[in-house]
Design a protein that fits this description.
Blueprint lengths: L5 H17 L8 E6 L4 E5 L1 E2 L4 E2 L1 H11 L5 E9 L5 E4 L3 H6 L8 E6 L2 E6 H4 L12
Parallel strand pairs: 5-7
Antiparallel strand pairs: 1-2, 1-5, 3-4, 5-6, 7-8
């Protein structure tokens, strides 16, 4: 796992600021921030209802794409610890599958037993799921 850079810390702060500002345990429990290849930061927020949950990472990636980014360079998600302090959380299985589709070597900020660092999206899903061929 690589050490965080100052740019990574900036990204983590951006996600944390969104979460602190918008947190609602019923609707918004996770925030994410993604840095596009241009260097710009795009944030996202999880959306939840009784039936549907949308992760924060796709929200941040969508905002980057809407703004015209070709790819995402780095992404992080944060949640709140029991004392309501933002902490880095790891992508869920769906996000581990989704994130690599928006950049070939996306850096993902993760927490491994409380140690925060950077891995590649390939490290998160070393044996990716592949859709079976369709026969039209």
């Amino acid at each position: 796992m690589q050490q965080l850079t100052s740019a990574d810390e900036e990204l983590r702060r951006a996600a944390s600021d969104v979460l602190v500002r918008a947190h609602d345990a019923r609707q918004h429990r996770v925030a994410a921030a993604a840095r596009g290849t241009s260097g710009a930061i795009y944030t996202g927020l999880s959306l939840s209802t009784a039936r549907v949950n949308v992760c924060a990472e796709p929200s941040a990636i969508a905002n980057a794409r809407i703004a015209g980014e070709d790819a995402v360079e780095t992404i992080v998600a944060v949640g709140l610890d029991p004392a309501d302090v933002p902490i880095v959380i790891n992508p869920c299985g769906v996000c581990r599958e989704l994130v690599p589709n928006f950049g070939t070597s996306i850096r993902v900020i993760v927490s491994d037993g409380g140690e925060v660092g950077v891995v590649t999206s390939a490290d998160l899903l070393p044996i990716p799921w592949v859709r079976a061929r369709s026969y039209d």
